[in-house]
């Protein structure tokens, strides 16, 4: 046995003496790097959180060796960031997120590596299903992905209780919340997961979700893996004697760390942009009202963009992309909320009259799911009157800001570029209620709302007609491409030069084409 392995074994045995220490205390001891205390503290962290991390990696990866690499890379990321975690008392949920990202990255590499190999051969030779739940790997991946997207209070409660096995009382003490509050959050988190998975075509009951997440604890963490992980972490962070360091694990951990940093920087930039926009709005509101003798309002500069102010510059394309992406994110959330209230069906492309004639847009149909103001505006419409009827037409001027094109000028008031694609194969089909379960190609690969080149009155039931082989008029506001939100709610900036075959695959909902949307553009991170 190597010196490093012996030290790791002793550390595991000593970890029990630190069982009462909090995650914060263990991280502080490890970050202090005082002789053997750092190793014992890290061993205690591996012993405490290793089973959950290992089960996530094993559930998502078909290859046992890949799962072990993902496990080691996850804890190596922890070792390098131990002194800088924002909420060290919630280490378990943080590790879940890192493990999911790491396993997903390895899975992407594995898929490319094995693209031309027979699935049956891979299963027979490399896959060990002895500790797998009955759910398929794609379902498990979707579950962990949507779990990561839950609002933090629900995500944390579900991970602590279901994945890490804490009782509701123990989780309540950890979070300084009443036991009843934790119970309610866990129940609500399961329901939210059920709804999110249903939107991806996965029909699971809340009970099935509870069973699936709790199964994660069934995967036993191999002691040798724990020891080698401790050994690796101490070698890399404390420069102690150790065995051979896996270059692939080091490279993977560094890649995940870089991706996490880039995500953090993107969110920070978006927050700064939002803060700047808020400050500009406050400044505009604080300006004194012009006296009656002032110039006519039509000739005055708008508050958001005062004319002639030295140093003022129009927003950059990157700024407008973030703003447009944020608007699409809210639109997608409203569509999802509509679906949850309508048997998981997307809103109709048009609100029809008694004679079947289209009267109003889907944008009017989702107003009740845009908050109190949206509900109030929806109540003002006559749903049996056309969009340009005597009652409804004046409501054009009350268009919610999220429908406005990014950087819209005064001449574009009441007009929107956010439209859906209509066709027999598209997500929206005239006269047919399309449900999430009808999206056989996957919600992550199917356009839901796109940025159109032409503008239409926001209440008018007019969108982009689609026919296979013909690219509809998309984009035009950005040199980099056009904005789109897929049916899972993810925002993308799609290049305008993608091949027609790929465009068709992204528009159609159930044609069976295999497409990797990351090759069509890039994701847009929205806070």
From TrEMBL:
CDD domains found in the cross-reference section: Sigma70_r4
Keyword entries, A-Z: Sigma factor, Transcription, Transcription regulation
Compositional bias ranges of the Low complexity kind: 295-306
Domain of life: Bacteria
Sequence ranges assigned to domain RNA polymerase sigma factor 70 region 4 type in this UniProt record: 141-193
Bias-annotated ranges (Basic and acidic residues): 105-119
DUF1559 domain segment(s): 328-454
Keyword Iron carried by entry: no
GO BP, sorted A to Z: DNA-templated transcription initiation
GO molecular function terms noted in the UniProt entry: DNA binding; sigma factor activity
Domain RNA polymerase sigma-70 region: 45-112
Pfam families per record: SBP_bac_10 (PF07596), Sigma70_r2 (PF04542), Sigma70_r4_2 (PF08281)
Region Disordered: start-end pairs: 105-133, 285-318
Family: Belongs to the sigma-70 factor family. ECF subfamily.
Protein name: ECF RNA polymerase sigma factor SigE
Lineage: Bacteria, Pseudomonadati, Planctomycetota, Planctomycetia, Isosphaerales
């Amino acid at each position: 046995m190597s010196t490093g392995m012996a030290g790791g074994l002793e550390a595991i045995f000593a970890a029990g003496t630190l069982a009462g220490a909090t995650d914060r205390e263990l991280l502080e001891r490890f970050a202090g790097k005082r002789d053997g205390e750092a190793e014992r503290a890290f061993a205690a962290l591996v012993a405490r959180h290793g089973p959950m991390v290992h089960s996530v990696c094993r559930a998502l990866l078909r290859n046992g060796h890949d799962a072990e690499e993902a496990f080691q890379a996850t804890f190596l990321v922890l070792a390098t960031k131990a002194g800088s975690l924002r909420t060290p008392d919630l280490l378990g949920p943080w590790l879940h997120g890192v493990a999911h990202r790491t396993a997903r990255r390895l899975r992407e590499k594995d898929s490319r590596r094995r693209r031309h190999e027979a699935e049956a051969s891979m299963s027979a030779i490399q896959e060990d299903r002895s500790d797998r739940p009955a759910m398929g790997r794609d379902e498990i991946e979707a579950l962990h992905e949507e779990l990561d997207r839950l609002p933090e209070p629900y995500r944390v409660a579900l991970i602590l209780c279901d994945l890490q096995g804490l009782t509701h009382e123990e989780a309540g003490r950890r979070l300084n919340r009443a036991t009843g509050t934790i119970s309610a959050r866990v129940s609500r988190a399961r329901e939210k997961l059920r709804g999110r998975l249903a939107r991806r075509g996965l029909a699971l009951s809340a009970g099935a979700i509870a069973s699936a997440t709790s199964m994660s604890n069934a995967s036993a963490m191999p002691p040798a893996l724990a020891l080698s992980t401790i050994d690796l972490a101490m070698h890399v962070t404390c420069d102690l004697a150790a065995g051979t360091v896996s270059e692939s694990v080091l490279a993977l951990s560094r890649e995940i760390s870089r991706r996490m940093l880039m995500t953090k920087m993107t969110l920070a930039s978006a927050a700064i942009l939002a803060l700047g926009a808020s400050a500009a709005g406050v400044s505009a509101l604080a300006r004194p009202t012009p006296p009656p003798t002032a110039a006519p309002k039509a000739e005055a500069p708008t508050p958001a963009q005062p004319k002639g102010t030295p140093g003022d510059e129009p927003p950059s394309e990157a700024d407008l992309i973030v703003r447009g992406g944020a608007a699409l994110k809210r639109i997608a959330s409203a569509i999802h909320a509509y679906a949850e209230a309508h048997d998981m069906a997307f809103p109709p492309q048009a609100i029809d009259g008694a004679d079947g004639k289209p009267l109003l847009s889907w944008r009017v149909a989702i107003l009740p799911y845009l908050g109190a103001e949206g509900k109030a505006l929806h109540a003002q419409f006559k749903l049996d009157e056309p969009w340009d009827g005597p009652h409804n037409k004046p409501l054009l001027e009350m268009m919610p800001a999220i429908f406005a094109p990014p950087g819209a000028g005064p001449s574009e008031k009441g007009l929107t570029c956010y439209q859906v694609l209509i066709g027999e194969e598209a997500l929206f089909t005239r006269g047919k209620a399309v449900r999430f379960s009808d999206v056989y190609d996957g919600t992550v690969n199917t356009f839901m709302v796109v940025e159109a080149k032409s503008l239409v009155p926001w209440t008018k039931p007019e969108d982009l007609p689609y026919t296979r082989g013909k690219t509809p008029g998309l984009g035009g506001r950005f040199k980099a491409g056009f904005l789109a939100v897929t049916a899972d709610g993810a925002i993308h900036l799609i290049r305008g030069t993608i091949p027609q075959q790929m465009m068709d695959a992204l528009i159609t909902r159930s044609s069976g084409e295999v497409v990797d949307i990351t090759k069509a553009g890039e994701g847009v991170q929205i806070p």
